[in-house]
Every structure is written in structure tokens, then in C-alpha cells.
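go over this chain:
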Amino acid sequence: MATANDLRRGMAISYNGDICVVLDMQHRTPGNLRAFVQATLRSIRTGKSSDVRFSSTERIEPVPMITKRMEYSYKDGEDYVFTDPETYETVTLAAELVGDTKNYLVENGQVTVTFVEEKAVSIELPSSVVLTVSDAPEGIRGDSSNNVQKPVTLETGITVQVPLFIKTGEQIKVDTRTGKYMERA
């Protein structure tokens, strides 16, 4: 068995008869007191988050997690549908679970979905994705003295700052961690 010091972000543990995913954790050692671990846990069953304080030597029970490469298929109302390319099984994820990753989801785009006891708990994007520019205003002549950029709208609806030479219909590579333009695709 592991101790609370072994907790890591994204890990699944058994806590109070429920399985929880660690959203955030901090190891603290206040002045004259003993060290402790402050963790934010989200219950898989209820979806609620809570802050929990563990003694640094307290025993925790990790739960095995399974990750699968999946492809984004389509949006069904508020939910998102993903398909396993090997077995063609579909998984529907709620909008709350998908979160801001929806800004980078394109049809047949590859993602990694993490499952705990056959329930999806998180989704991870590749470090960069290729998106098509859907609306790009024209650059003004004479604006090219330095690295001048303009805002463009991409196919998923997000706005990104790009160099003046990018036009509507071009494909660009965007960093999913920062949301910034990287290069032409």
C-alpha cells in the first residue's frame, strides 16, 4: 500500500468506500506541526469535488487506471462521442468532463481517454493539433515592421493570434497547452 506522500495528480484512489480521482495535491509542512498532504478529490460516482487532508504517513489504496487511444466522432447535444478505432465501441462523455479540450476537438482527432472501473474520468489531447482557419481578416499594408499578429477564428470557434500572412482556409498547428499558434501545417 502507498502512503499519502505518493499521491499524484490524475491518480485514482479508494477513499471512504468510493473511488476518487486526485485533481490537485500539495505537500505542506507548517512551522512546528507535522507534515500533511492537502488534496482535492473528485468522486467518480457523484462527480462532486472535496478537499481532504491526509497525514503524510496515512495509507491510501491506489486504484488501477486504463488509458485508451480514441477518436472524436461527433457532438450529441451537450455530450461528446468518442470511438475506439480498434473495437469501434463508442463512449459518450459529458461536457463537464471534456471541459476546455472541446476547443481543439476536430472530427477523427486523436485523444487519450483514461478509465477507472470502465468509467471515463479524464481526457487528454496531443500537445498540438492542426486546425483550419475559418475567418481571417486581411492584414493592412505597412503593418509588417515587426512581428505583428492578427486574431483569426478557427473551425472549432476559438480565436488565436497568428502572423499577418495567414489567410482563410489555411491549416495551422496550435499548441493545445497554451492555445498559441505554432506554424503552418
